[in-house]
Amino acid sequence: MSKITSSTLLKFKKEGKKFTSLTAYDASFANAFDSEGVDVLLVGDSMGMVLQGHSDTLPVSVDDIAYHTRCVSRGIERALLIADMPFMSYATPEQAMTNAAILMKAGANMVKIEGGHWLLETVTKLTERGIPVCAHLGLTPQSVHVFGGFKVQGRDTDNAQRILDEAKAIEAAGAQLLVVECIPATLAKTITEALTIPVIGIGAGSDTDGQILVMHDVLGISSGYIPRFSKNYLKQTGEIRSAIRAYIDEVAEGTFPSPEHTFS
Ligand code: KIV
Ligand code: NA
C-alpha cells in the first residue's frame, strides 16, 4: 500500500481512474477512511460549520487547522493529506508562506487556497519553496459574503469563461491539484479536459477526475440540511465503513454524482 502523492493522482487522471476524497478532522475517522481506500483526505475549513457550529467558514484559525491536521496525520498511512488555509491566512504571499509552513509542519502534504488570478504569485512562491498547492475555484465559501450566499457559480458565459481562465492560469503558476465547487457540470468537464493537473469536484457533476464530500454529509449527521450535491451513504448501508466503500465504488463506476446531485 504505497502512499498517494500528486504523481499518483496525475497517473489516475491519465488512466481515467476516478478517485475519491473526503474531509476528515480526527485520527479515528481518518484511519477508517484511509484504510477503506479514500485517496485524498482534506482537513477542511468546513470544520467551522460541522465541528464548531458557525454558519460559515470565516472564524476558523490556522491553529484550528494545524491541530486537526496533526490529529488526522496520525491516523493515516496511504491517503494524500491536504490542509485548508483558512480565511485571511494567505491575504499576502508572505502570510501564505508563514501559515502554509505551519500546516506542512503539522503533517499536511499540500495546502488548499481559494481564489484565482489574485493568487498566482502566491501559488508560485509556495511551490518554489516546497509547498504543493491545491487551488479551489467556483463557489469558494470564504467569499460567501461577496457572493451574497452559497450560490452556484459560473452559470453565465462571462463567469464561466473567467473560471476557466483562472483554472488555466493557476495551473501555469504551479498548482498541482484543483477543487471546483458548485459549478455547472458542463463547465467542470471543460476545465477537467483543459487541464493537465487532476480536478476534484463537489457539486460539479461526474466528469471531474475525482470527487470530494464533507464526511458529515456522507454520514448524514450535518446539522440543518444536506446540500443537494451531497449524498447520505450511511442511510443505504447502515454502517460507516460500508458507507465509505459505497461512496468509493459509486465514484469509481461513475454513478455518483448522478443528475439529481448536479447543476446544469
Ligand atoms: O472545507 C471543505 O470541506 C472544503 C471541501 C468541501 C472542498 O473545502
Ligand atoms: Na474549505
Please give the CATH class.
Alpha Beta
Question: What portion of residues is helical?
Answer: 40-55%
Remind me, CATH topology?
TIM Barrel
Beta content comes to 5-15%
Strand tally is 8
Order of helices and strands: HEHEHHEHEHEHHEHEEHHH
Lateral arrangement of strands in the main beta sheet: 1-2-3-4-5-6-7-8
Bound molecules: 3-methyl-2-oxobutanoic acid, sodium ion
Instruction: Identify low-pLDDT runs.
Output: none
Which CATH architecture would you pick? Alpha-Beta Barrel
Subunit structure: Homodecamer; pentamer of dimers.
Protein name: 3-methyl-2-oxobutanoate hydroxymethyltransferase
Subcellular location: Cytoplasm
Catalytic activity: (6R)-5,10-methylene-5,6,7,8-tetrahydrofolate + 3-methyl-2-oxobutanoate + H2O = 2-dehydropantoate + (6S)-5,6,7,8-tetrahydrofolate
